[in-house]
Amino acid sequence: MTTAPHHIFADDSLTVAEQAEVLDLGLDMVANPIRKSLQDRSVAVLFDKTSTRTRFSFDVGIYQLGGHPIIVDSGVSQMGKKESYQDTGAVLSRFVDAVVWRTGAHQNLHDMAETATVPIVNALCDDFHPCQILADLLTIKQRKGHLKGVKAVYLGDGANNMANSYMLGFATAGVDITIAAPEGFQPEQRFVDRAQVRADETGATLKVIGEPDVTGADVVITDTWVSMGMDADRDTSALRPFQVTPELMSTAARDAVFMHCLPAYRGYEVAAEVIDGPQSIVFDEAENRLHAQKALLEWLFR
Ligand code: CP
Ligand code: NVA
Fold first, then answer.
1. Which residues contact 177 (CB under 8 A, 6 or more apart)?
2. Does the annotation count 132 as an active-site position?
3. CA 46 to centroid of ligand 1, rounded, Å
4. Choice from 46, 47, 53 to test ligand 1 binding pocket (greatest atom count within 8 A of CB)
5. I need a surface site. Which of 67, 118, 224, 284 has the fewest CB within 10 A?
6. Average pLDDT, stretch 184-202?
7. How far apart are CA 133 and CA 138, in angstroms?
8. Do 259 and 286 form a contact (C-beta atoms < 8 A)?
9. Is 106 part of the annotated catalytic residue set?
């Protein structure tokens, strides 16, 4: 009997206990980076959208685990336009041991999963970015020593993939998460409801507010106001009061940290003084993409 592969489509593809296991493994990856858990295994890493961190961290990470990464931009393959995601999933499953995929519509991942017999890992889609959230949680765990009860506020475009993943992934970790976004930029109720299920399980608080309020926050987070695939000219004027400025940071906890998944746009979602200042941990956060994803892959192959 064959068992269905464990796909990582969103931040609740891992249970509360499983996420904790992956994060503990992530800490171990930092201490012991070179290992052979992917020896003789190949991983397809596919990109329908541009990337720096995801591309490098998966390439280096799979190499450090003894595996073979095959990095492909979809534009130079048949997938999507000339061949369905279902046929692509069936074919890739004959060659590789896992598929990591950055795509647009979340449904694409499910289409490939109809035929794939190997795990598919979402490396960002329009709705979620679960690999980034594992890296962020690892970073907070390193900084604060624990996750439960940490207070995080995400400001800005509350209707994008990062906001959805922060709600879902942070609630799973027991981190209190508030999304601060103006009307028109707040998360869809279906994602809030889905995250609330996890918040109920862990005791985390989950809030959506309409003001840029970070009073007492331990972690202040933002993301680009214009995500990949969005109209570059979209009106983001309502987001201006949600820019993370030094004044805003001064109302957070005294030892608050600033996080951003990057790439960042100084002068828009964050002031240069903040992202380049002493409270910013954005490059530790970027490095942790490597450790967290290695942990996830090793965990999937256990
Ligand atoms: N944060 C992140 O996913 O970065 P890239 O788009 O560079 O991969
Ligand atoms: N919300 C951003 C995240 C980039 C890593 C985007 O989708 O473009």
1. 152, 153, 154, 166, 167, 170, 171, 195, 204, 205, 206, 207
2. yes
3. 13
4. 53
5. 284
6. 98
7. 8
8. no
9. no
Both structure tokens of 25 = 């493994």
Q: What is the distance between the alpha carbons of residues 10 and 54, in angstroms, rounded to a whole number?
A: 16
266-291 in b/e form (b: 16+ CB < 10 A) is: eebbbbeebbeeebbbbeebbbbbbb
pTM of the model: 0.98
Say which amino acid occupies 125: C
Separation of CA 212 and ligand 2 centre (Å): 21
Q: Is 12 a catalytic residue?
A: no
Query: Could you confirm whether 125 is annotated as catalytic?
Result: no
Pick from 1-5, 186-190, 232-236, 239-243: least confident: 1-5
Does the beta carbon of 161 sit less than 6 angstroms from any atom of ligand 2? yes
Closest residue (by CA) to atom 1 of ligand 2? Answer: 227
Per-residue model confidence as pLDDT tens digits over 19-49: 999 999 999 999 999 999 999 999 999 999 9
Mutation to probe ligand 1, out of 289, 290, 293 (largest number of atoms < 8 A from CB): 289
Instruction: Determine whether 279 is an active site residue.
Output: no
**40: which 2 tokens?**
């003789």
Lookup: tokens for 35: 């290992």
